[in-house]
Write a structure and sequence with these properties.
Strand content of chain A: 35-45%
Largest sheet of chain B: 2 strands, parallel
CATH superfamily of the largest domain in chain B: Nitrile hydratase alpha /Thiocyanate hydrolase gamma
Helix content of chain A: 10-25%
Shape of chain A: globular
Order of helices and strands of chain B: HHHHHEEHHHHEEHH
Number of domains of chain A: 1
Shape of chain B: globular
Oligomer: heterodimer
CATH class of the largest domain in chain B: Alpha Beta
CATH topology of the largest domain in chain B: Nitrile Hydratase, Chain A
CATH architecture of chain A: Roll
Number of strands of chain A: 5
Number of helices of chain B: 11
Number of domains of chain B: 2
Number of helices of chain A: 2
Radius of gyration of chain B: 19 Å
Strand order of the largest sheet of chain B: 1-4
CATH topology of chain A: SH3 type barrels
Largest interface: A-B, 24 and 21 residues
Structural class of chain A: mainly beta
Chain lengths: 92, 196
C-alpha cells in the first residue's frame, strides 16, 4: 500500500456524505498530486457532528484544471484531509 | 458549494444561545463581542504589506517565509496565534512565470490577522465558484491581464490553513525604502486578484 507523501498521486473520494464535509464537490473522484502536508487536524466531518476525532495529516493536493473541469491550463491546489484521499498504486 | 446561508435564522439562534449562556452565568455580558474585538484588533492589510516589503528587500526572509510562514512572520512582529489556536499560514509568491490567487470555495476562510476583514467580493458565490474554473477570465474582470505564458495556480482554502500571496515587486522601485515599498502593496495584491 502506497503511503501518502509529497509527489504521490491520489484520487479524491467520491462519496457524498450526509451533513458537513470539507471535501469540495468539484474535486470528488478526481486525481491530483500531493504537494505538502498542511498540518494535522481532526476530520472536519467528525468535528461538525460533535465528535472529537483523531488528528490526521491534511494535504495540499494539486489538480490540473482539465482533470476537474474538462478545460483550462491552470492548476487548483485544494487542502484535503487524508481520509478523503486514496493513493494510486503506480506500476513499479 | 454551499451558497445557501440563511443568515437571519442562524443569527437569531446565535443570539438566543448567547443570551442563555449569559443568563446561566457561563458567559459575562458582552464577553463574546470582547473576544471578537480582540481577535480583529490589529488585523489589517498593512500587516500583509509589511511582510511583502520585507520579502522584497530580504531574499533570506522570503525563503523562510515560503518554507514556514508562521515562524517567519514573527521576525516582523506578527503572528497567526491571535485566535483560540494558532492557524497555519501558507504564503506563495508570484514570479514572472507563475501567478497565484486565493479563494475559499466552501465558505470565506481568510487570514484576518494579516489582511483585516475580507472584501465582499471574496465571499460572493460568483468569485468562489468562478475563479477555480476560469481564473484568467476572472482576473481579467479585475483588470489584471496576464501574459498567456504565465501559469496560474489557484489555492482553495478548503481546510485549516490560511493563505497569502506575495505579489511581484514592481519595476523601478530599487531606490525605495522598505516602508515606501509596503505602501505600494494592496489587499487585492495579497489575495492575487491584482498586481502591484
Amino acid at each position: 500500500m502506497t503511503e501518502l507523501a509529497p509527489g504521490v498521486r491520489v484520487r479524491a473520494r467520491t462519496a457524498d456524505p450526509d451533513g458537513h464535509t470539507r471535501l469540495p464537490r468539484y474535486v470528488r473522484g478526481a486525481v491530483g498530486v500531493l504537494v505538502e502536508e498542511a498540518g494535522r487536524h481532526p476530520l472536519a466531518d467528525d468535528r461538525a457532528r460533535g465528535r472529537a476525532g483523531t488528528p490526521q495529516p491534511v494535504w495540499h493536493v494539486r489538480f490540473a484544471a482539465a482533470d476537474l473541469f474538462g478545460s483550462g491550463d491552470h492548476t487548483v491546489t485544494v487542502e484535503l484531509w487524508s481520509d478523503y484521499l486514496t493513493p494510486i498504486e503506480e506500476p513499479a | 458549494m454551499s451558497g445557501d446561508h440563511p443568515s437571519s435564522v442562524i443569527s437569531a439562534r446565535v443570539r438566543h444561545v448567547e443570551a442563555l449562556l449569559e443568563s446561566r452565568g457561563l458567559l459575562d455580558e458582552g464577553e463574546i463581542d470582547g473576544r471578537i474585538d480582540e481577535f480583529l484588533a490589529g488585523g489589517s492589510p498593512a500587516n500583509g504589506a509589511r511582510i511583502t516589503a520585507r520579502a522584497w528587500v530580504d531574499p533570506g526572509f522570503a525563503e523562510r517565509l515560503l518554507a514556514d510562514a508562521n515562524e517567519a512572520i514573527r521576525e516582523v512582529g506578527l503572528s497567526m496565534a491571535g485566535g483560540l489556536q494558532e492557524q497555519r499560514l501558507k504564503v506563495v509568491a508570484n514570479t514572472a512565470d507563475e501567478h497565484n490567487v486565493v479563494v475559499c470555495t466552501l465558505c470565506s476562510c481568510y487570514p484576518i490577522a494579516l489582511l483585516g476583514p475580507s472584501p465582499g467580493w471574496y465571499k460572493s458565490e460568483a468569485y468562489r465558484s468562478r475563479v477555480v474554473r476560469d481564473p484568467r477570465g476572472v482576473l481579467r474582470e479585475f483588470g489584471l491581464e496576464l501574459p498567456e505564458t504565465t501559469r496560474i495556480s489557484v489555492w482553495d482554502a478548503s481546510a485549516e490553513s490560511r493563505y497569502m500571496v506575495v505579489p511581484r515587486r514592481p519595476e523601478g522601485t530599487e531606490g525605495l525604502s522598505e516602508e515606501q515599498l509596503a505602501a505600494l502593496v494592496t489587499r487585492k495584491g495579497l489575495i492575487g486578484t491584482a498586481a502591484v
